[in-house]
Amino acid sequence: MVVVKKWNKERTEEMHDYRVFSTKRMIVSSSHFEGTHNMYVIESPDWVNIIALTPSYKIVGIKQYRAGTDEITLEIPGGMIDSGEEPLMAAKRELAEETGYISDNWFSLGKIAPNPAIQNNYCHSFVAFECTSSGSVNFDTHEDIALQLVSIKELHSLFISESINHALVSVAFHKLDLLCKSHSDPHFIEYAKRTRE
Questions:
Q1: For residue 75, which phi and psi values (nearest 5 degrees)?
Q2: Strands 123-129 and 47-52: what pairing?
Q3: Are 176 and 152 spatial neighbours (Cβ–Cβ below 8 Å)?
Q4: Of 67, 81, 93, 180, whose CB is crowded by the most CB atoms within 10 A?
């Protein structure tokens, strides 16, 4: 069996800071190649995203403009974790800020590395059940968000048609589906039942 070892970091050079992320160059060496090699890394705070479900199991979706694809996307709420903030607290804050919805029924869906080839951060996913609207949002200055409640029945067709095409949104729902197979909480059982209807 081939053993893969971490490459040696000879040195790291900070490059540019773009507010929401920064870049660095890592000069690395390995027994698998001669000399050194430049690797470029995007450094960013960890992120959160939230599958928020109302008491009637409607999914709280958000529509917003995304510059990367130059499209209006349908996603779930989420954002960056502030310095010193725990992922769950960030998830509660982001849900309230972007949608006005709050919940006392939160479960972690784990974390995932969005792109370990070039990024150093993780996205922590959560599901929040019995979300109710507080009626107030608190958008960042650069946010322009519209709410869209989505039924569980619609979800499959939205993914198939690529109306939802955000990779981290897809992963969050996949993780929720996997957790539903083993979780005994009544909310998970009800969600799983509704996905089969």
A1: -135, -170
A2: parallel
A3: no
A4: 81
Shared domain check, 138 and 72: yes
Q: Does residue 115 share a domain with residue 18?
A: no
Mean pLDDT for 91-116 is 96
Cα(197)–Cα(194) distance, rounded to whole angstroms? 5
Q: Are residues 15 and 54 in the same domain?
A: no
The dihedral sign for the CA sequence 175, 181, 183, 186: positive
| Structural domains in the chain (count) | 2
139-180, pLDDT tens digit by residue?
A: 676 778 899 999 999 999 999 999 999 999 999 999 999 999
User: Strands 71-75 and 59-66, how do they pair?
Assistant: antiparallel
Distance CA 99, CA 2 (A): 49
Give Cα separations from 27 to 20, 23, 113, 119, 121 (angstroms).
Answer: 24, 13, 22, 16, 20
pTM of the complete model beyond 0.85:
yes
